[in-house]
Automatic annotation (TrEMBL):
One Pfam assignment: Trp_halogenase
UniProt signal peptide: none
Gene3D superfamilies xrefs: FAD/NAD(P)-binding domain
Lineage: unclassified sequences, metagenomes, ecological metagenomes
InterPro entries given in the database record: FAD/NAD-bd_sf, Flavin-dep_Halogenase_NPB, Flavin_halogenase
Originating organism: marine metagenome
PANTHER family from the UniProt entry: FAD-BINDING PROTEIN, SLR1998 PROTEIN
GO molecular function terms listed in the Swiss-Prot or TrEMBL record: monooxygenase activity
Name of the protein in its database record: FAD-binding domain-containing protein
Length: 120
């Protein structure tokens, strides 16, 4: 049996690896993603920031995220160890309401699986 040939081998199927693989495949490259973990898997880093909206849109995932059960976020507030709270930072006061004024609090196992499935 002849060996398969790939243009690019991506090591790691997390958000960066799966996003890179999806974009490379979109541009006609034959891509192999190597991942040692079994997906879905637990991982920290659940709080997406507003500027993830455009890359997620580029990957074609916005409709899937909007339809998901992930908690939508429209602001952020920080609480110091001594209990003092910052003023809330509302995204719509700073960013375009139609795009980056919303983001999500994701479950990384589900989010990473969504990205990896998109790369397939």
């Amino acid at each position: 049996m002849p060996a398969e040939s790939f243009d690019v081998i991506v090591v790691g199927g997390g958000p960066a690896g799966s996003s890179a693989a999806a974009i490379l495949a979109e541009h006609g490259r034959r891509v192999l993603v190597l991942e040692r973990e079994k997906f879905p898997r637990y991982h920290i880093g659940e709080s997406l920031i507003p500027f993830t909206y455009q890359p997620l849109k580029r990957l074609g995932l916005i409709d899937q995220l909007k339809a998901s059960a992930f908690t939508k976020k429209y602001s952020v507030q920080f609480i110091a160890p001594d209990g003092k709270a910052s003023q809330p930072f509302y995204f719509f006061n700073r960013y375009d309401r139609e795009t980056v004024a919303q983001t999500w609090q994701v479950m990384r196992a589900e989010f990473d699986q969504m990205l990896l499935n998109n790369a397939r």
